[in-house]
Design brief:
apoplast, alpha+beta, binds 2-acetamido-2-deoxy-beta-D-glucopyranose, about 300 residues
Length: about 300
């Protein structure tokens, strides 16, 4: 290679590197995790290769059959951010199956935020149940129907989570909020790093309690698909959760993410009026006294 060729190649390389850096800078500024990040970068399979199928770094299938449930989880833990995943649910006959996507810390006083997709017989709608545990206390189930068929395409299910509010989102629609009401004595998830988990399992026993149809192995294997493995959140490094609490300048802490805006409140109310099928807040058999956070979390007092 002579000097001119070398110089020409160097120029090409510089242009390439500049473009690459520009792309990376753009990606770092993106506000959701639709950036192609490989599964292996942030996650590990926790069941065998026939049940957690890593098809390529960007697409993973969980496979439930008579032999095993299926799962994967993150390598590390996070505190605050917008944490979500693209999920396409088990198509056809999925009754009795539960596809779970959840964030959880370990231990008895753990924090946890759950999406649980409850399968149904062919042609009938999935139920999406969400729950929140703060300092080990859960029992805050809400269940909605979705306004689309979640088995046809990937949809992005996520939690926008900061020290003011936790918003459960389906694509960009808020379906639930859990606000920081520590001042009123309601525990909030703001000091524990959570791992990110996905699983597909036989929920027949649990589901049948509510009178739903059991899982039928004739229709196995049951397969749910996952994508979007980037994590737009604060990673807890060496157990230092405080670093995520005091971290300044991350987009999810900005004032516009500390509460819902008027459009989001309207969207949340539409979910509440049109799609809500169970809410612990109105289950007076379970909770004769309405939990203190309920009115605040549906934003009724703000209107
Ligand atoms: C996966 O399934 C194949 C075919 O049934 C079997 O040979 C193999 O041992 C299985 N692998 C694991 C990791 O279970
Ligand atoms: C299954 O569909 C039936 C009929 O539409 C509905 O009543 C039931 O709630 C659905 N099951 C779940 C788990 O959502
Ligand atoms: C499972 O589905 C098959 C095929 O539709 C049906 O013949 C069978 O009766 C079902 N089994 C149960 C336990 O419902
Ligand atoms: C978010 O929390 C901080 C600290 O408690 C508080 O100063 C701020 O007013 C809250 N933001 C909103 C929109 O309530």
């Amino acid at each position: 290679m002579n000097w001119n060729q070398w110089f020409g190649l160097t120029k090409v390389c510089i242009v390439f590197v500049v473009l690459l850096l520009a792309t990376l800078a753009h990606c770092a500024g993106a506000q959701n995790s639709n950036v192609a990040v490989s599964f292996q970068q942030n996650y590990l399979a926790t069941t065998d290769a026939n049940h957690t199928r890593v098809l390529n770094g960007g697409l993973v299938e969980l496979v439930l059959d008579q032999y095993s449930a299926a799962a994967f989880g993150s390598k590390t833990s996070y505190l605050f951010g917008r944490i979500g995943m693209g999920i396409k649910l088990v198509p056809g006959y999925s009754a009795g199956t539960v596809t779970a996507y959840y964030l959880s810390s370990p231990g008895a006083t753990h924090d946890e935020m759950d999406f649980e997709f409850l399968g149904n017989v062919t042609g009938q709608p999935y139920g999406l149940q969400t729950n929140v545990y703060a300092n080990g206390v859960g029992g805050r189930e809400q269940r909605i129907n979705l306004w689309f068929d979640p088995t046809v395409e990937f949809h992005y299910y996520s939690v926008l989570w900061n020290s003011n509010i936790t918003v459960f989102l389906v694509d960009d629609t808020p379906i639930r909020t859990f606000r920081n009401n520590e001042a009123l004595g309601v525990p909030y998830m703001d000091d524990q790093g959570v791992g990110i988990y996905a699983s597909l399992w036989d929920g027949s026993n649990w589901a049948t309690d509510d009178g739903w149809v059991k899982l039928n192995w004739t229709y196995a294997p049951f397969i749910a698909s996952f994508e979007d493995f980037g994590v737009d959140g604060c990673e807890v490094v060496n157990g230092d959760t405080q670093a995520c609490v005091t971290q300044q300048g991350m987009w999810w802490n900005l004032p516009q993410y500390q509460t819902l805006n008027a459009n989001q409140i309207q969207a949340l109310h539409k979910v509440q009026s049109d799609y809500l099928i169970y809410d612990y807040c109105t289950d007076t058999t379970r909770y004769p006294t309405t939990p203190i956070e309920c009115a605040l979390n549906w934003y009724e007092l703000d209107l």
